[in-house]
Amino acid sequence: xxxxxxxxxxxxxxxxxxxxxxxxxxxxxxxxxxxxxxxxxxxxxxxxxxxxxxxxxxxxxxxxxxxxxxxxxxxxxxxxxxxxxxxxxxxxxxxxxxxxxxxxxxxxxxxxxxxxxxxxxxxxxxxxxxxxxxxxxxxxxxxxxxxxxxxxxxxxxxxxxxxxxxxxxxxxxxxxxxxxxxxxxxxxxxxxxxxxxxxxxxxxxxxxxxxxxxxxxxxxxxxxxxxxxxxxxxxxxxxxxxxxxxxxxxxxxxxxxxxxxxxxxxxxxxxxxxxxxxxxxxxxxxxxxxxxxxxxxxxxxxxxxxxxxxxxxxxxxxxxxxxxxxxxxxxxxxxxxxxxxxxxxxxxxxxxxxxxxxxxxxxxxxxxxxxxxx
Length: 374
Hints:
three-stranded antiparallel β-sheet, alpha+beta
């Protein structure tokens, strides 16, 4: 029997179609069908100035919005040989890690909601508010921050901002272990998580899974390692697990939160003096840059013609993670309900998946997948 879920369904927060092939209750195969909210945002950016391009890039994804602007800015900075002041680099790390905290908490709360665990869902969302308040204190906004510019950040921050941010992080820490233990040690949740949605390390590599989804299957990549700011100034541990199931993916996100809190503290304690923005003269050229968004690798490839964006290609983590989910994780789960929770465990973002637009010789738009383009 084929069981369709979506594109409009109470279990899905965004429109996408899951087609589950079942034998009795057991799901033996799954397919994902994209294209219901396609926006062609890459084509829209072409011909725009970097100021308009960075504004649009922040709207590729509603949750990982910050990392898109940072990666966009770093790509233009590489083309134009712009040196970002150390203080701006530290401020970017603070915003990056605060965004990672809120995203991981939202992802886990959504996972708990998919299993109808209302208590954990509400507890985790409440913790997320402290991270969102901290983002607002730093940037002035909660979701689309509008903070990064080519050459640094729009405005400085000082102790008036840092002290309440540190207080909010302390509030998260005070309740974090309780919330984590409710999940990690809860017998009912363990029955529905451990061994469910399994993906081996070999499958994760073959499916090109990234971020916490890959690291939960013992894939080592974290693109903060190798990033010039993190390598030069900061110390943190890459979280990896070996179980490769829904339990591991949820705990990987939970266990990355203390590391992000530590990075924010390191940035505030060692904040250098100086400017927060270097004036930039945009040059013509091409560059590619990667960053570690909360969901995994974000890559920007940009070609400029003076101050205008000639071509842009964006690789987001959602398609490889969602494809891996359908091909490996959902396969052989015991029930359709477990298929829904497994899909939620991979932290899907349909918005950032629906973005690639290529035109043919006649000017007609052709929608393609990123792996067919890059």
